[in-house]
């Protein structure tokens, strides 16, 4: 046994435990009957029930916020990736004046504290009669999702050899056609990763969704969960069940693509 | 097929770097023209300007009878083979070969015929359905060639196409390229940093340095009558010897005063001490199989300038001895010390 080698392993184990335990606890609690939640907390699962999950879809109509979240996050991702791809390609490949400044300001916009733009955005959306609508969420989401998308995609496009599109152009394709027939297919893994990350960020967003919606018909999952809390009681079991449902698809997506996502994040960070 | 003409072509980058300056070059219809020079001499920039991948900041480029100076690559009817091959990784060999034809709207059955023809000519029939990642280096190189020839373009451009191959394959492919050119009769502009490749392939060779053309001539003329010291040094292997104009008594320039004497290692003969034009001390002898490369120092004390001589493998030459060196008087080159220009 080499003592030097088990130190990092121990630290790692503690870290994994610290980050995984709350989730395990939430999953466990979501299957535990409400009555037993506070009486006999146990680390081991026993007497599990589906009550909370059933309640979510019968009493709470939880499918409504799920639908809203899917629509809003999906539309945001679609818009971001399709528009962002053009923008990122131009930033990665074309030479034009002020490119560095533009790239820097895109990053800066992405860093804006959300809370500082909530009230002005609210006023704008109200004037446009977009409060409590899907566009009323998708448009504000672009403010943080678009910089993220562009930044990641610039990193991916820069990794591609420039000779690829030059070959396509010499072969008779215009710049747009070379982009479509050669660059997009080759960059597809990067684009998919970007799409997943954008989707995850939009799916998790809370502040804008809370501020720009009025009722359950447009509320997204995080907002709906936050509003489960009633005046006299907090339905912990249902809240945790909803959290598990909201987390699961995102976790699975990230797990499935984790290697590429790590590549994407470092590409964006180092090559910027 | 078409000729390519460069008139006063200049490329200055925004950062002030001048990659090409006043290039005047006429490449004839069907000619194999090689641009050669050390890295950074502007040969690749020149090629990329002919391709339309870079726009000149001055001058005119004509392909055939059409001025193309500011036309994008897709409107120039040229094909280019890149150093990295730049195959489309997401397409099969068949799709790679067909891409250029498809972009130009060739009919489907015509595409199939021509792809098949090219694949047969290059021995790629068995790998048509593979992707580039599944091919060997030599096969990738041939797909890159094939992608150029299926198009039957006016002009072929090659950017160091052999530099990613190992030595043996490079020599084989070089011969294949020469055969291909003979068969197609197409105009070729070929960029390389390798003077041997330039000499063996080019009908004419354009030597470049620091963005300027130094000399454009058939290979043997470059070798026999280099226009200046740079070309003399760059062409031929082992490289030419340069001596101060007065290093060897009895050899005087025909014109001018301050001059440098250039003589190729092949144009010197080793003779017994005292019977040549000058005596020299044998430093190192490198056997090269078919010949010996002998490094000498002028003067019986071995303290003069260095001289390289190519000698026949027999008789054996011993190191650390003094020998005579005889200069072939018909093969001497004189250069101006200041400008490096050839003195006739």
Number of beta-strand segments of chain A: 0
Task: Tell me the distance between the termini of chain A.
Answer: 43 Å
| Multimer state | heterodimer
What is the helix fraction of residues of chain A, given as a range?
over 70%
Count up the helices of chain A.
13
Q: What structural class should be given to the helix and strand makeup of chain A?
A: mainly alpha
The geometry of chain A reads as globular
Distance linking N and C termini of chain B: 38 Å
H-E order of chain A: HHHHHHHHHHHHH
Query: What portion of residues of chain B belong to β-strands?
Result: 25-35%
User: What are the low-pLDDT stretches of chain B, counting only 5+ consecutive residues below 50?
Assistant: none
What is the makeup of the main sheet of chain A?
A: none
Mean pLDDT across every amino acid position of chain A: 87
User: Total strand count of chain B, please?
Assistant: 19
Task: Specify Rg of chain B, calculated over alpha carbons.
Answer: 24 Å
* Uncertain segments of chain A: 268-272
| Tally of contiguous helical segments of chain B | 8
Largest interface: A-B, 20 and 25 residues
């Amino acid at each position: 046994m080499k003592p030097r080698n088990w130190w990092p392993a121990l630290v790692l184990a503690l870290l994994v435990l610290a980050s995984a335990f709350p989730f395990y606890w939430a999953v466990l609690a979501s299957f535990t009957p409400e009555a037993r939640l506070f009486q006999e907390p146990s680390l081991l699962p026993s007497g599990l029930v589906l009550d909370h999950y059933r309640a979510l879809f019968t009493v709470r109509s939880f499918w409504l916020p799920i639908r809203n979240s899917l629509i809003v996050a999906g539309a945001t991702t679609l818009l971001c990736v399709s528009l962002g791809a053009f923008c990122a390609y131009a930033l990665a490949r074309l030479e034009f004046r002020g490119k560095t400044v533009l790239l820097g300001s895109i990053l800066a916009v992405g860093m804006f504290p959300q809370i500082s733009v909530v009230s002005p955005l609210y006023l704008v959306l109200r004037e446009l009669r977009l409060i409590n609508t899907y566009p009323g969420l998708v448009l504000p989401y672009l403010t943080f999702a678009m910089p993220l998308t562009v930044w990641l995609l610039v990193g991916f496009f820069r990794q591609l050899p420039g000779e690829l599109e030059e070959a396509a152009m010499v072969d008779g394709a215009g710049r747009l056609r070379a982009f479509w027939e050669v660059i997009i297919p080759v960059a597809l893994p990067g684009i998919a990763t970007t799409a997943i990350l954008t989707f995850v960020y939009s799916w998790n967003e809370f502040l804008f969704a809370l501020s720009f919606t009025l009722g359950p018909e447009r509320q997204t999952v995080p907002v709906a969960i936050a509003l489960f809390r009633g005046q006299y009681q907090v339905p912990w079991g249902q809240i945790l069940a909803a959290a598990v449902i909201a987390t699961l698809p995102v976790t699975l997506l990230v797990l499935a693509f984790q290697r590429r996502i790590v590549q994407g994040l470092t590409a964006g960070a180092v090559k910027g | 097929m078409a000729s390519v003409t460069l008139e006063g072509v200049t490329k200055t980058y925004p950062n002030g770097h001048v990659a090409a300056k006043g290039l005047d070059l006429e490449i004839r219809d069907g000619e194999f023209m090689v641009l050669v020079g050390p890295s950074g001499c502007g040969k690749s920039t020149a090629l990329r300007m002919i391709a339309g991948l870079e726009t000149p900041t001055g001058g005119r480029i004509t392909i055939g009878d059409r001025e193309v100076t500011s036309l994008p690559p897709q409107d120039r009817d040229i094909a280019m083979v890149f150093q990295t091959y730049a195959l489309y990784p997401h397409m099969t060999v068949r799709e790679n070969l067909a891409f250029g034809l498809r972009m130009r709207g060739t009919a489907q059955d015509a595409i199939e015929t021509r792809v098949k023809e090219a694949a047969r000519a290059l021995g790629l029939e068995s790998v048509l359905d593979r992707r580039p990642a599944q091919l060997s280096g030599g096969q990738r190189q041939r797909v890159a060639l094939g992608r150029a020839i299926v198009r039957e373009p006016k002009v072929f451009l090659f950017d160091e196409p052999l530099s990613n191959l190992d030595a043996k394959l490079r020599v084989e492919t070089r011969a294949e390229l020469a055969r291909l050119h003979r068969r197609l009769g197409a105009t070729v502009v070929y960029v390389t940093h390798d003077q041997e490749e330039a000499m063996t392939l080019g009908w004419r060779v354009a030597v470049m340095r620091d963005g300027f053309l130094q000399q454009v001539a058939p290979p043997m003329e470059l070798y026999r009558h280099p226009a200046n010291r740079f070309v003399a040094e760059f062409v031929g292997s082992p490289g030419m010897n340069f001596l101060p104009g007065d290093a060897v008594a009895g050899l005087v320039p025909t014109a001018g005063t301050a001059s440098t004497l250039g003589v190729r290692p092949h144009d010197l003969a080793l003779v017994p001490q005292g019977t040549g034009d000058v005596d020299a001390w044998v430093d190192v002898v490198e056997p090269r199989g078919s010949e010996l490369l002998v490094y000498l120092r002028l003067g019986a004390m071995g303290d003069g300038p260095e001289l390289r001589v190519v000698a026949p493998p027999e008789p054996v030459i011993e190191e650390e001895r003094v020998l005579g060196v005889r200069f072939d008087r018909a093969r001497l080159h004189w250069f101006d010390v200041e400008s490096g220009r050839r003195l006739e």
